[in-house]
Amino acid sequence: MKVAAVIAAGGTGTRMNTPVPKQFLEISGKPIFIHTIERISSLEDVVQIILALPEEHIPAAAAILNGMQMRVAVQCVAGGRNRQESVHRGVRHVRPDADVIMVHDAVRPVCDADTMRRVLDAAREKGAAVPGLPATETIQRVSRKGRVLATPPREELFAIQTPQAFHAEILRSALDRAADAGFVGTDESSVVRYAGHPVTVVPGSPDNIKITRPMDLEIAERLISGNLTKEDGTDMSESRFRIGQGIDFHRLVEGRKLILGGVDIPFERGLEGHSDADVLAHAICDALLGAAAMGDIGQQFPDTDPAHRNRSSMEFLVEVRTKIEAAGWRIQNVDATMLAQRPKLMPYAAAMKTNIAASLGIGIDAVSIKATTTEGMNAEGRGEGISAQAIALLQKK
After folding, report:
1. Residue 91 near residue 7 (C-beta atoms within 8 A)
2. What is the CATH number of the domain that holds 87?
3. What value does the mean pLDDT take over residues 352-376?
């Protein structure tokens, strides 16, 4: 199988607020797009790489590439007004004997070889394939006025990544047809589907992040510098770092204690739930479990189990920590935010940090707890409930 790779590098990086396009920003001493090209060229099937970028940036990219030794030569071509047009221009330069065309974002520099291989194998067999991650949270369709319009079934929702791969003639004809009809898709798979071809989804990778914000640079730096190497010097596909996020919401009701972060907070109402309904601890549990790819708190501690009735959520944190450590991970830090109109929660934050740190076996300085109101908006602002969001970082032992 001969694979031609088209790398879309037309972004300007306005959200990064930097003087150069984000694909030229450096990670571990190299521009982002060089990391991406190196990952792609490591696949022996790849026989051609085309970099589509704004014409004014071609000289800078060419100068960088001239100083690099690549297994596959990289051809720079001028992109278009949007991503689809840039990819279309890149595809026009693909050699005629290419069996498969793989399209990748220049600012996804951490895509592992296993993910790329899954996509290529599926594209070779099915004609079109993309990597995707199943949605872990409820996704709502919302109107411009902020009202929920519909709740699509979560099992049908996936976050689609790149690289995306297609039989060469399928992608060529689909892009030509879209250009003639004036159709602009959000990615190559939507263009191929518009042309009437089915697209197969294969498992993506949570490490395959797209760099769009300054924080993503730090995450990518950790993922790249943290990659393990085998004895023969080749990269292993598994990263030493994993990031997870969690969110939880509970309704405020009469006759219940308000427990947050293991702290009993004086208030006329408490949170409704099967356990003690500690929404902060639950969000942190979900972040940790998500980072370790172990599902969520509902799977680990189902509310159908009588053993969990009125149980302290600090015990959940201890058990989650035990499961994560048994799987070979170490908790680095957690960062959480509570949303409530009242009561004021920050006076209790120090005690919450102490409880959470003890349950997770990490230092207090590795736990960040914040609280905010919603300015009277939504359910939290109306005093109907309290929610919490959390992010956790794990490191391979």
Report:
1. no
2. 3.90.550.10
3. 94
Amino acid present at 63: A
Instruction: Name residues whose C-beta falls within 8 Å of residue 132's C-beta, 6 or more positions apart in sequence.
Output: 158, 159, 160, 161, 201, 202, 203, 204
> What is the CATH number for 284?
3.30.1330.50
Residues 6+ apart with CB under 8 A from 295: 289
C-alpha 120/C-alpha 46 separation (Å) is: 10
Task: Look over the chain and give the mean of its residue pLDDT values, rounded to a whole number.
Answer: 91
Nearest-angstrom CA–CA distance, 323 and 296: 12
Clarify whether residues 122 and 185 are in a common domain: yes
Residue the block writes with tokens 């191929």: 192
Mark whether 148 and 187 lie in a shared domain: yes
Range of the domain at 358: 241-396
355 domain-assigned: yes
Distance CA(2)–CA(165), nearest Å, equals 12
Listing DSSP states for 89-107 in one string gives HHHTTS-TT-SEEEEEETT
Same domain, 251 and 143: no
Phi and psi at residue 320, to the nearest 5°:
-60, -45
Number of domains into which the chain is organized: 2
Q: pLDDT tens, 84-127? A: 999 999 999 999 999 999 999 999 999 999 999 999 999 999 99
Helix (H, G, I), strand (E, B) or coil at 331: strand
